[in-house]
Specification:
This protein is α/β, with parallel strands linked by helices. It has helices at about 10-30, 35-50, 75-85, 125-140, 160-170, 190-195, 200-205, 220-225, 265-280; strands spanning about 65-70, 145-150, 175-180, 185, 190, 210-215, 235-240. The protein has a single domain (about 10-280), classed as 3-Layer(aba) Sandwich (Rossmann fold), CATH 3.40.50.970. It has 9 helices and 7 strands. Strands 1-2-3-7-6 form a 5-stranded parallel sheet, sandwiched between helices. It is globular, with a radius of gyration of 18 Å. It starts with 8 loop residues before the first helix and ends with a helix.
Length: about 280
């Protein structure tokens, strides 16, 4: 549902902190997940779900809803905690994450989890689906929008660039891709693996209107999403500069935490840091 009042920046910070705390507890309990990427995307998810998206948690398939696709599906933990906090399903269900017969699989499944728009996990699939969704809205002359969150390492998949050309060709200004640009992927930096820079120029060359933002600054994120579309007739690209493991000092910017899970003592330390940050 359309928000009648924009939440305060402090409220969005509180939600992001809650996403991180619930997420870390969930991953530690399950002994499975992608800690670093979950923490890097938390602020983006908090602003989108609590301030921007036109959605109704009581009616997850409401036809007029905005669609958000988490293409970096290995970071399902961040999405699940966000959906639970937003009211799509009970918070207590997070305790079942990655357990036998749980709806909360390691990768999101649209037939099992309210609020999940499409199954993701294999990288490079989210943007093509987002293009299809945005094109469908244009054909229906509908007002809803499509948002896709990708990892930066994920842009090494060629399917993204085929979809990018298609989106520009059809003038999909109701489509927004948010690149979680934390600079790290499994095992190394993105630039040491397959160089992405100059990333802004690449997206512009493909016909997109591009903006850069601090992906942990809630005010900047709010401002940039409220200004969509950036230019009529062009799809929107937001390159969000983030830190893998944001919010926890010993995880931040450490490539080894791509899919490492905290021990009980590390969890306790991380929760202390987040609690202290919430009190500031």
């Amino acid at each position: 549902m359309t928000l009648t009042k924009t939440p305060t920046i402090n409220y969005l910070k509180v939600q992001a902190n809650s996403i991180r705390r619930q997420n870390l507890q969930m991953l530690t309990r399950a002994h499975l997940g992608h800690t670093g990427g979950d923490l890097s995307v938390a602020d983006i998810l908090s602003v989108l779900y609590f301030a921007i998206l036109n959605i109704n948690p009581q009616q997850p398939t409401w036809p007029e809803r905005d669609r958000l696709i988490l293409s970096k599906g290995h970071c399902s933990g961040a999405l699940y905690t966000t959906l639970a906090l937003r009211g799509f399903f009970p918070l207590d269900e997070l305790k079942t994450f990655a357990q036998p017969l749980s709806a909360l699989n390691a990768h999101p499944n649209r037939t099992k989890v309210p609020g999940v728009e499409t199954n993701t996990g294999p990288l490079g699939h989210g943007l093509p689906v987002g293009v299809g969704a945005a094109l469908a809205a244009k054909l229906q002359k509908a007002a809803w929008r499509a948002f896709v969150i990708t990892g930066d390492g994920e842009l090494q998949e060629g399917s993204n660039w085929e979809a990018a050309m298609c989106a520009a060709h059809y003038g999909l200004d109701n489509l927004t891709i948010i690149v979680d640009r934390n600079g790290l992927q499994q095992g190394n930096t993105t630039e040491a693996t397959i160089r992405l820079e100059p990333l802004v120029e690449k997206w512009r060359a493909f016909g997109w209107c591009v903006r850069e933002v601090d992906g942990h600054d809630h005010q900047q994120l709010l401002n940039i999403f409220q200004s969509l579309p950036f230019e009529p007739g062009k799809p929107n690209c937001v390159i969000a500069h983030t830190h893998k493991g944001q919010g926890v000092s010993f995880i931040r910017d450490q490539v080894g935490w791509h899919h490492r899970i905290p021990s009980e003592s590390e969890l306790a330390q991380a929760l202390r840091e987040l609690e202290e940050a919430a009190d500031v």
